[in-house]
């Protein structure tokens, strides 16, 4: 359904042009959920905005392709892209408290999409909106449809955003940190709602998160991003059972466990994500990596397909025959 190939996204700044997404590639099948995971600044949201064609004025896709049902969204005229955006591809944004227009009712905002893409009358659109609000678990939808966003809690606003995303029965939903601003109980409810609706409708999903618990619960496949690049991709079971890249392993170790004795320090990753203006040569993780070699500092690694592993790729010299002869066992890093 979706195939992103060698995507490179740049932004013009006062200090020069920076590359926020660099040679990112992945595939997404119908009905599949792909999680993009990584620290802040890893390029997850920019990847999503590139797919949606919603980059800021100073941003552009400099290279690569985004094929959605055999149409390249990068070269598609804006008018045709508008026919896909919000219709076949929808997005749930990160901040429900600011994603809705405060001066328009919930009904007016949700109606706009179905009127534009489905050609419904205002009366038909209102009925469709009430139906959608009920579907996402909002009580008294026939009253809420006439309310303004400030009257709804954060959880209810996010449910309204999910209803908007579902309004035209999209084939792909991109959810950018959909539970970030919500408390833990509401987070669980929203994730269950997204998962159930995706399964019910057969909608494919790209879920952006930094929470590995969310990844374990929601993902079919996982792409780990660091400094604008995908450093590892695998199915969710393989990634959790056999992580390969030192960054992925460090992320796993940083997750608190219920078995951790009281008073023990939580594991952390030393250093910080490099600045886009001063990207290191070679592997972008080498300055923080305990396994870095001279080659890591000088030569940029490409994504390597691991032998005997179905669609498990890793961007690391440790798994190149020239660097580690015959070694493809993640336990060397354990």
**CATH-assigned homologous superfamily of the largest domain:** P-loop containing nucleotide triphosphate hydrolases
Could you say what the CATH architecture of the largest domain is? 3-Layer(aba) Sandwich
Arrangement of strands in the largest sheet? 6-7-8-3-9-10-12-11
Q: How much helicity do the residues have?
A: 25-40%
| CATH level 1 name of the largest domain | Alpha Beta
Tell me the number of helical segments per DSSP (H or I, 4 or more residues long). 12
Pairing-aware structural class of the strands and helices? Answer: alpha/beta
Provide the number of structural domains.
Answer: 2
**Could you tell me how far the N terminus lies from the C terminus, measured between alpha carbons in angstroms?**
36 Å
Family: Belongs to the ABC transporter superfamily.
Membrane topology: Peripheral membrane protein
Domain ABC transporter: 2-252
Keywords: ATP-binding, Cell membrane, Membrane, Nucleotide-binding, Transport
